[in-house]
Amino acid sequence: xxxxxxxxxxxxxxxxxxxxxxxxxxxxxxxxxxxxxxxxxxxxxxxxxxxxxxxxxxxxxxxxxxxxxxxxxxxxxxxxxxxxxxxxxxxxxxxxxxxxxxxxxxxxxxxxxxxxxxxxxxxxxxxxxxxxxxxxxxxxxxxxxxxxxxx
Amino acid sequence: xxxxxxxxxxxxxxxxxxxxxxxxxxxxxxxxxxxxxxxxxxxxxxxxxxxxxxxxxxxxxxxxxxxxxxxxxxxxxxxxxxxxxxxxxxxxxxx
Lengths: 151, 95
Fold this sequence. Notes:
The complex is a heterodimer of chains A (about 150) and B (about 100).
Chain A: E1 7-11, E2 16-20, E3 29-30, H1 34-42, E4 47-53, H2 64-76, E5 95-99, E6 104-109, H3 118-121, E7 124-129, H4 139-147
Chain B: H1 7-10, E1 15-22, E2 25-28, E3 33-34, H2 39-52, E4 69-74, E5 83-88, E6 92-93
């Protein structure tokens, strides 16, 4: 089976609550859909993060498209807003995981606020993470959606 | 006699209402804009309106930035005039 990018929305308990598998996804692109955006908007107060897969193996890096989406969604949905504080037991950031066949990396906004400076709102830091018990709730299934049989 | 607001009649046939999502809030531009306005211009108009406090129901935010946003267009039907939605774009993938 060819690699196909796939996405999953994870709630504050670490459970998968939405699988983003649009019919026109490919090995290099996971397109915007109204359904995906509507779900994120309506459930933003119970979301801890979004994971998506990249083709192949190795430690994944975020592309410019990925970081643009991280930033646009956090700005648009008020994830970091002082005016719309969200009750988050562990953190106030969304987690953005990127998964390959062999590794997982986690990206988060590296500076505390969004300002009008592009360098600020595209400033995300990523690091490799090992699979935790919480991640076992969605990571194997994300790999199955992306690579077929879990590697 | 009671006037009944008719949103379809209130918006010229070649114009559209514009709804903007930003900072966890949603609001409309105060006036319709031409339905054929190019996407970059719609986003620029929406951003300036949000910064200036012209979006109905939401406070001004001088730092509002709608980079990586898209425009969705919904043609008029019997119940609704032309509408545009300005919201975050959500693709993942290669540049």
